[in-house]
Amino acid sequence: MPPPPGFDHDLPSLGSLGSLGDEARRIVVVEVAGALDMDACPQVQARLGQALSLHDPPLVALGVGGVTSADSFGLTVLLAADRHARASGGRMVAYAAGLTLRKTLRDRALDGVLDLRPSLAEALRALRRHAGAFTL
Hints:
This protein has helices at 41-53, 72-87, 99-107, 120-135, and strands at residues 13-14, 18-20, 27-36, 59-70, 91-95, 115-117. By secondary structure, the protein is of the alpha/beta class. Strands 1, 2, 3, 4, 5 and 6 form a six-stranded mixed sheet that branches. Helix 3 links the parallel strand 5 and strand 6 (115-117). InterPro entries: MlaB-like_STAS, STAS_dom, STAS_dom_sf. This is STAS domain-containing protein.
């Protein structure tokens, strides 16, 4: 699929938005790759906003394995999405963070703020447990 008009190829790739799960639990998977910076923020924010609005409460697995760098603007978008998910009774779990992103989060004392899991499978497990708390 060709990029939309005006698309800057240096912006992060936003993988397809997909829903996983059964009728009781809906988990949306979003993948972000490339530079997570001020230029990328509008696209990433729009995609995360879409993911957060699909189900109530929102359950989002965010793939960040392809993120090559992140500045304070990009990190703010991730933190705001996480805060929105939690305020709505849902959860966002990031997975597959590479060394660069983990170091950036650690250097800014944010490594304990975002829920980071090593793989999509682990992120899905955490989100299913969270969703299960509502179906008991």
